[in-house]
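Lab notebook, bench 4. The sequencing result for the construct came back, and we need a structural model before the next group meeting so we can plan mutations. Quick request posted to the team channel:

Model the 3D structure of this chain.
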Amino acid sequence: MFLHLLVAALLLGVLWVRRRFAYWKDRGVPYVEPTFPHGNLAGMGSTLHMGNVIRSVYGQLKGKTAGLGFAGMYFFLNPVTVVFDLELVKNVLVKDFHYFHDRSVYHNEKDDPLSEHLFAMEGTKWRSLRSKLTPTFTSGKMKMMFPTIRAVADEFSKCVAGTIKSDPELELKELLARFTTDVIGNCAFGLECNSLKDADAEFRRMGRKVFHVTRFGLLKRFLASQYPNVARRLGVTNNAPDVSKFFLNAVRETVQYRLTNNVQRNDFMSLLMELMKEEDVDPLSIEQATAQAFVFFAAGFETSSTAMAFCLYELAVNQELQRKATDNVNEVLKRYDGTLSYEALQDMVYIDMCINESLRKYSPAATLSRIASKDYPVPGTKHVIPKGQTVLVPVHGIHHDPEYYPDPDRFLPERFDEQTKANRNPYAFLPFGEGPRNCIGLRFGLMQARIGMAVLLKHFHFTLSPKTPVPLRASPSNTVFTIDGGLFLKVQTV
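Done. Here's the predicted structure in token form:
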């Protein structure tokens, strides 16, 4: 009897999985054939980064979406809508934002307070906090933070110069992360992180732990994002207990020190402290404030350092492009009496083009995900995206589509000169997202990357090391699209 019941249960399970995997076929929507249990995510985290998975799906389906503008794939057993048509991308991110205002990012305020940050928040709670945090990232505030970032960049330059005296071959991926860690720690927490002086400084160690997860940890995060209610009931967390404890203590101690000593600074922490004191609405708790500081830190140091690392690699491969970038820095500095000012940085147009091309070719975020908050009739079709379904904008695929970027695997900064940009659909370049939920810190991230690149190219010349693979390989288990292993370059002073 038990054996009969077991066989019946297995048969029902098989039938149920088959029905799940028939979702797109039943609706006449092109899709990539899934496999159990990963759907279309087989290999992700072990041999493939999510960016590679998405680019493959995009390549298989791009020519099959005419008249629809979207196609289908599967995250494990869940059907996911993949948006191809750039007009439909615009609808999802901007025009019809009220249907897609939430991301499919798992958060669990009770068991994992650091996960309740702006990137993951939903609905009116997100909208309210977003409007309060936005003033921190205006152009005016960026100009005020500029001297702090430049001072850290000067220390970075000295660190590089001192290191190459003993060995001209540097591992730059980690060194760039130490630079951006010190920048963000200073601007977000008002603290000297000392990562440039101490490679094992606590802020840097915790930064590594945030992004370098095991394959099991990565799969756990994806499963939690697909089945969030079950995950919350099970108490699933994304952040390690020691990471949460470290950041909570850092914010508590910073807040207490500033209150005791009446410290006033024009930084992110000061704004959070103001929000914690608000009396007319629900003030931020110390845990909620820490979550915002945490996501600013985590997103800010990793994405900017990654963009610079890939950019330096490409300039080492393409010496003529490096010469043009260095000439751009020196020509602008000459006009500003050798001073790297905020205004001088704005005039370094070619540096900006190089960074944008790095963000295009090596998109830190491979996808943009949204959840349909209600049934969405897809314009011009008979199809409806049902409430609760994940909608994916395949950034890595779009950024490598030859329709928008001929010879997409070639690093070509001229793709981002003013005339070429004007002739290209703006939704073909989405490193920071678009619309109301675009990256709130994009100005800050770009500024620290520009400063870092300008200082490095002013003082140093970069060539490939025999240790550096060509082409580079993306780290499969990192949540950000980043280099697997180190970035070894030979560095000379100029």
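Strands lie at 70-75, 78-83, 169-171, 368-371, 376-377, 384-385, 390-393, 460-464, 488-493.
Will bring this to the meeting.
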